[in-house]
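Sequence in, structure out.
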Amino acid sequence: MIWLEGFRDKTVVVTGASSGIGRATAVAFGAAGARVALVARRQETLDEVAREIARAGGTALVVPANVTIRAQVVACFQTILRAFGAIDVVVNNAGVLIPASVTQLDAEDLDAMLRVNLFGALFVMQEAVPGMLEQGGGTIVNVASLAGRRGYTPLGGYCATKFALVGLTEALRMELHGQPVHISLVMPGIVETSMVEQLTHDQEFLDLWPQSLNMPPSWVVWAVFAAARFNLVEVSVPPGAGTLEKLAALAPGVADTIAGWAKGTSHWLATALRNGAPTAVRPATRRPPPARRARRHPPRR
């Protein structure tokens, strides 16, 4: 497409580039002719992504870093600037999800999500913005979530971190009003990635959301491209979903009722898809709280 030519020879930094949305985004920018800096913790996986970009005709720089450690983010940007001279687009995508009901949410798990989803994004923005202002422009695309506009169970902790990221992004956009640095939000729903794959083992979640309804990462990639190319303030995936959530915020009581109805419908659909035949909707019954699950190291995107 002609509008993709706008990224040719531009420098694009993608965090969380080792898998899922980040990997798909990095490969797409490489195929569009951009110079792509790949940022994540796992160098071996980043090397694979770099080879994939090379096969697509692009240029990639592998920069292993843990975005939760400020010093590593600083060193990461210094490495990229030495290699490419400037940074035109940053896709702030690194994220982690640990599902749990609010009553069972472990403080350490919430802290782990905050460190990546909020503080990691903050450190990246704090490094990117001054350089972009000095060079006369740039774009930052923060990949948040529709879960950053409304809370869902069993994703309460994850929702809290994405609500925080949305607020931080909107505040930065106000700070930079009139400046040549554009800040965008991309708000995807549930995407088929390794981060979400762990939810397929969570029966409570599967009762609410059939796996077959997950979106492919390519949908989010196009949203990121559109946000960066056309300086869009916010893009929801699928389109219009974010608007519905904002409207729901005007009448939260009504929204809760609708969400309860949707929960029952989703449970019926999930059950029907699992069993291969429709199942009658049974009245919701109060279930005992689940036993606390053993902590695990969740995959990041």
